[in-house]
Amino acid sequence: MSGLVVGYGSPDHVKIEEMFKKISYRGPYLSGILTNKSAIMAQNYLRADCPTAIPDEARVPISSSANGGLRICYDGQMGNVEQLARTYGISAGPFAEERILLHLHQKHGSDMCEYLDDAIFAFVISNGDEIFAARDLLGIKTLFYGRRDNTLYLATELKSLAAVTDDVNEFPPGHYMDGSGNLTRFAELPKTPPEHLHSDLNQMVEDIRDIIQRSLQSRVDFTVETGGLLSGGMDSSVINYLASQLYKEKFGNDARLKTFAVGVGESEDIETARTMAKQIDSDHHELIVDLDQILTVLPEVIYFLESFDPSLVRGSVSNYLISKYARERGIDLLLSGEGGDEIFCGYIYLKDFPAEELFARQMECVGFLHNNASLRLDRMNHCNSVRVVAPLISGELFRYTLAIPAEYKQKPVGNDKVEKWIFRKAFEPFLPAAITQRVKQEFSQGSGSAAVLPSYFENLIGDDELSKAQSKYSIIRSKEELYYFRLFTDNFGDGLAVETVGQWPKL
Questions:
Q1: Shortest CA distance to 499 belongs to which of 108, 34, 162?
Q2: Is the previous residue joined to 55 through a cis bond, with omega within 30 degrees of 0?
Q3: CB count, 10 Å around CB of 303?
Q4: 36: exposed, middle or buried (C-beta count within 10 Å: 0-12, 13-18, 19+)?
Q5: Is the pTM of the predicted complex or chain greater than 0.85?
Q6: β-strand pairing of 226-229 with 333-335
Q7: How far apart are CA 310 and CA 165, in angstroms?
Q8: Could you tell me how far CA 121 lies from the centroid of its own chain?
Q9: Is 386 left (phi over 0), alpha (psi -120 to 50) or beta?
Q10: Residues 334, 386: Cα–Cα separation, whole Å
Q11: Which residues, other chains included, contact 176 with Cβ-Cβ below 8 Å and sequence gap of 6+?
Q12: Could you tell me if 343 and 328 are in contact, meaning their C-beta atoms sit under 8 angstroms apart?
């Protein structure tokens, strides 16, 4: 959702415009730049971000007559926006989330983040004299900051900041910043699991279904052309199953939700996505690609992604291609199953740890979201001017599943474990067995990109070339990563920008 650029101190308008131009694809529908005393604030929106707004009448960044001279630049999504609006008397209409945030800031100041427990966000609020910036605990929404010429600059993407300064830093998740540039933590991931809510398995199953259903309903209303990313895995299958039901309820039983799948050849994702699409009677679209097509778009992918981590890049290539394909077919908003592996412990390597260690390892997974896994969700869709919604990334669902016993997330069966067992159990009555019994695969594995890229670079780059690069950059772990690293540094340099990249522990 949208993009922002802010300068505070003695900002240069030309520099702000240059930064803002770098992320124009995040909001071609509506945009604006405001100069106010010591701050220059720039904001853009996609049509799917504000479908009821009238571009010729809306003035962004958003202000509110009830909040004095405050303005807000915002990228985010609230799952409980209607509840907050009722609580604080915020009227319906465009930019309700922004108006809620302005109200919370005026009423609670820096404590406002305590009221955003079902929201993902990165925002900057200013009256021209003071500034307040914050980023959500999981870091689903990205934010960067740096300084130049006595000015603090903030931006949604690294490329904007890198256009004006080498002092580029990731804004840490779960923190807020004041005008002096001081960072303060307002929340952190739990160190120990909460007490179990109950041991009633049937109740857990019903609760999980209900929470996810409500999360979807609160985030999607099909006002704009909406489609579903369907990989054929559990996460995307559940979201598309529920979305298809809602779509038919709104438009009639003959209405068919558009779904999209991508694969390198006849991949496993393609085959299982077909099975799921048939089950829910969706208007299904497939994009079959080959290695040459993947190699062609790699420079673009890494530029937009702002990472060189191999696991992330492989999945992002597929996501980029299918998002672009969907946008060319008129889609404004795509539904994603992102977040399910972190919430329900779906990663295969988690099976290697005993039950008593699972919570700590799960928190490590969640901790990788802010500079790794969540980038694919945000960047590969926004670069194609598509809004993405991931209903499984829900504060309510996250808190609930933390209290589920470890053995229900990674269920011991014989000498093995079934990952995301409780999630499978909740939706097995509604999905094909080919989906509910499918072993977890990363998006890059199921789509096929993980099968072709590592071997290609193994043959392309020599052992001596890798050793020489590793002697200078110890973070490079493979020939594939070296190739991506070079593309990354061509765009962002090999200085502080490299430190913003999160590396997944498994290649």
A1: 162
A2: no
A3: 16
A4: middle
A5: yes
A6: parallel
A7: 27
A8: 10
A9: beta
A10: 7
A11: 110, 113, 132, 133, 134, 135, 183, 184, 186
A12: no
Domains and CATH numbers, the chain: 3-185 (3.60.20.10), 206-439 (3.40.50.620)
Q: Please check whether residue 282 is in contact with residue 258, taking contact to mean a CB–CB distance below 8 angstroms.
A: yes
Q: Which amino acid is at 46?
A: L
Residues 315 and 67: their CA atoms lie apart, in Å, by: 43
**Contact criterion met (CB below 8 Å) for 232 and 261:** yes
Chain centroid to CA 211: 20
- What's the rounded Cα separation, in Å, for the pair 4 and 42? 6
Residue closest to 136 by CA, chosen among 101, 89, 106: 101
Which two structure tokens, joined as six digits, stand for 86?
């009722």
Name the token pair of 504.
């997944």
Neighbours of 430 (CB within 10 A): 16
H helix or E strand, kind and range, residue 455:
helix 449-460
pLDDT values of the chain reduced to their tens digit, one per residue, 507 residues: 699 999 999 999 999 999 999 999 999 999 999 999 999 999 999 999 999 999 988 999 999 777 778 999 999 999 999 999 999 999 989 999 999 999 999 999 999 999 999 999 999 999 999 999 999 999 999 999 999 999 999 999 999 999 999 999 999 999 999 988 999 999 999 999 999 887 899 999 999 999 999 999 999 999 999 999 999 999 999 999 999 999 999 999 999 999 999 998 888 889 999 999 999 999 999 999 999 999 999 999 999 999 999 999 999 999 999 999 999 999 999 999 999 999 999 999 999 999 999 999 999 999 999 999 999 999 999 999 999 999 999 999 999 999 999 999 999 999 999 999 999 999 999 999 999 998 865 544 445 566 789 999 999 999 999 999 999 999 999 999 999 999 999 999 999 999 999 999 877
Can you tell me the distance from the alpha carbon of 466 to that of 378, in angstroms, rounded to the nearest whole number?
31
Find where tokens 């005026």 sit.
Answer: 106
Sheet bearing 226-229, strands edge to edge:
283-289, 258-264, 226-229, 333-335, 387-389
Query: DSSP states of 39-99 as a string?
Result: EEEEEEE-GGGSTT--TTT--SSEE-GGGTT-EEEEEEEETTHHHHHHHHTPPSSTTHHHH
Distance separating alpha carbons of residues 423 and 418, to the nearest angstrom: 11
Q: How many Cβ atoms from other residues are within 10 Å of residue 245's Cβ?
A: 15
DSSP H or E stretch at residue 208: helix 201-219
Task: Give CA separation, 162 vs 154, 170, 271, in Å.
Answer: 11, 12, 42
Amino acid found at 97: E
